[in-house]
Design brief:
72% of the residues lie in helices and 0% in strands. It is built from six helices and no strands. The radius of gyration is 20 Å and the shape is elongated.
């Protein structure tokens, strides 16, 4: 029931998730060096780095929300493994399907508000207090992150529905926690 197409879509989305995770990781790496520069300049030369706090505040969404779908796919998120781990076969896939549906509902409820915050910042020209940098780019990052996560959850719903219909089918596009064997 659509295993080949599901696999192709999953692989394509994995590329997007990997790119967003690398971008988030790159931002963390750069911010680490900004922090080092701030400490050296402030303590060593009594010359604090201008805009350092605004930069860190503006980039927080990048390293948290761009990486969320990658983390979700790797089952690195908070899961209900205590409950779902007791199920096997079709019952497990039904429980996973229900949990994924609940996650999709939550994202669908959150996404319009996130989009509103971005649009509001863009149209009114919102900016940071100290440096007057525009805030809309950092408010657009959650829109991207949650959109990629929505695509991941929709694929996951398809995958779990496929496994509910045929519990013996190969699991495709479903997260497998690294601490559990794949057939658990």
């Amino acid at each position: 029931m659509g295993g080949a197409l599901l696999d192709r879509l999953d692989r394509a989305l994995q590329v997007v998730e990997f790119v967003t995770a690398v971008l988030g990781g790159g931002v963390i790496f750069c911010l680490m060096w900004v922090g080092v520069a701030e400490i050296v300049l402030r303590k060593g030369f009594n010359a604090p780095l201008y805009g350092q706090l605004d930069l860190i505040e503006q980039s927080m969404a990048t390293y948290t929300l761009l990486t969320i779908s990658y983390c979700y796919r790797k089952a690195g998120h908070i899961r209900v493994d205590v409950l779902v781990g007791h199920f096997k076969g079709r019952r497990k896939w039904i429980a996973e399907l229900i949990a994924s549906f609940a996650a999709l509902v939550l994202i669908v409820v959150i996404l319009p508000g996130v989009l509103h915050f971005f649009e509001n910042a863009y149209y009114i020209g919102d900016s940071t207090i100290n440096t007057q940098w525009p805030t809309w780019p950092s408010k657009f990052i959650p829109v991207i992150g949650f959109s990629v996560l929505t695509a991941r959850i929709v694929l996951e719903l398809w995958a779990y529905a496929r496994l509910v219909a045929d519990p013996l089918a190969e699991p495709i596009a479903v997260p497998v926690p690294s601490h559990l064997p794949e057939d658990a």
